[in-house]
Amino acid sequence: MRTFRCYILLAVMILASSFSNLAQAGNFSNTINVFKKSPVVQPFFKKAYGYAVFPTVGKGGFLIGGAYGKGQVYRKGKVTGTTTLVKATIGFQLGGQAFSQIIFFQDKRAYNDFTSGSFEFDAEASAVAITAGAQAKAGTEGATASASVGPRTGKQAKTKYRKGMAIFVHIKGGAMYEAAIGGQKFSFKPK
After folding, report:
1. 8-state DSSP, 153
2. What would you report as the CA-atom Rg of the chain, rounded to the nearest whole angstrom?
3. Could you tell me the residue ranges of all domains in the chain?
4. What is the pLDDT of residues 14-30, one digit of tens each?
5. Which residue of 3, 27, 31, 182 shows the fewest CB atoms closer than 10 Å?
6. Which helix (H) or strand (E) holds 73?
7. Where do the H-state alpha helices sit in the chain?
8. Model pTM greater than 0.70?
9. Residue 188: in which H helix or E strand, if any?
């Protein structure tokens, strides 16, 4: 079983690294600006204790898949360290996708949980897509994205903190179908 996990992790790195290489260090401010333009996200920037931002997370798979991305963690607007997102999935899935992700920390406790060194979202963690007409969910049961509100309405789903964190994604491109198990895991390295 341990060898199988190693193969899954290797598959994650290979399948997803091509997407994540699209991100450059300068993209952090550009990505933050994309999220700041969303009226749904703006209040979180004003009140959050901190946040983690991932300019590009690459996700891909064919039966075995995964996601990978590198990010920065901020507290009160200043970079406090770097973070890496890794996700391994097993189950029916096909395709590839690239997206940006931001995780807001409501308070010091949530920030400390995330920056403790190794953090994983539970099965009920969900993310709201800031692009009109889309909703996304990421958790240990897999990550999905689907259209739900027509783009002409301009409506976006509202979200609130859950266990001190609120998550938003911005789909950059690609298409992927998956009905898989897995979870986003994060590591943190202080600056």
Report:
1. G
2. 16
3. 2-190
4. 444 444 444 444 589 99
5. 3
6. strand 50-75
7. 2-20, 27-36, 42-47, 108-114
8. yes
9. strand 165-190
